[in-house]
Amino acid sequence: MYDPYLECPKCRKTVLESQFLTDKCKCGFRLRIKFNYEKLKEIISKPELNRRPFSHWRYKEFFPIRDPMSIVNLGGGGTPLLPSRKLGKTKFNLKNLYFKVETGNPSGSFKDRPISIGVSKGVELNAEILTAASSGNAAAALATYGARAGKKVVVFVPEYASEGKLSQLAYLGATVIRVKEAVEGQDPSVKLFKTAYETFGWIPSPSFGPFNPFQFEGTKSLGFELCEQFDWEPPDWVLCATGSGGLLAGTHKGFKEFEELDFITSIPHHVAVQPEECAPIVKGVQKNSPPLEFQDWEKTPHTVAGGLADPHPWDADSALAAIYESSGTAIAVSEEAILRTQRWLAQYEGIFGEPSGTAGLAGLEMLVEKGEIDRSDRVVIPITGVGFKDPKVLSQQMSLPPPIFPRISELETVLNQT
Predict the structure, then answer these.
(1) H or E segment at 86?
(2) Is pLDDT above 70 for 390?
């Protein structure tokens, strides 16, 4: 269902998919995959989709996998869309706030969507070793699906990656390489990852950027699912916590492809929400930068939302294009706002997300205050990673009460203090 020749969006060089590692241009952008929508229209219909299990692989024809026997499936996708019961009205005065809760994916984050495609493609290409650079969630997904596929996985992580995420990687059998920063504003894990896979001939399988063109297509399933969960009438806004930009851009492409097939007639406004400590895509939107001319963040980010700390946003070209095409926007939020709204989500809705996964709420708070979102608009916040991923941040924000003796008088004292 797709052209075997991939294309650079800048110089227009074409590369045969099996040669993406050796036949390169020097533009530094992800090669684009062209799907044949006329053929897809002949095969895929709303009734046909409805006959299939509601999961990520429901949309298999939209993914760049040629051999169905290569598919590595752990039951990802098909995540719930939950209407806000209290938070929307109490804090934002919104009637129609929804949460797309990605925390139930097998590795605990939305990264299962792109990485499941990358590992499946690795199986199809007979890869022996799969590798990635990641602050945690993409590496966890790669370790998870790599274990299922029986593939050796080597992951490069920044020195500051959380212990919770590193423990998950090690338990899944991945070889974990922690990398120290050498140059201000550069991700050292990406530098060593690139050198390593080029030196040893490993298959690069990160969730971002030009290193592998296939994974990006997996994130489209989040957009596909939202179309169906809203009964083919997409929401008005989708606010994505954004690091590299792949989630926002991939979700947008999902909506665009269903529009191409005449399944929907409108596209949501897409909003990139980034921490003030690392907001290169926000800077690009503020400057109205052309998508292929985005700029890096020039300093090393220090943010509680570690999964969003991407000084070089590898998918910014696609994210900026999606924002412009959808008449969306981008907004930078403070550390305090990220932690405050993370706590609100847990206490008002019972949804436990990590700071990198809930930052979209902080962006919603600002846009509502600015009057850019109407009270009746339908708004979706993807909650992209489970709160257990980053226990250090939690322990720094909460203090436990001292233990008491089993006496009702001491219990009453504690209850009166809460």
Answers:
(1) none
(2) no
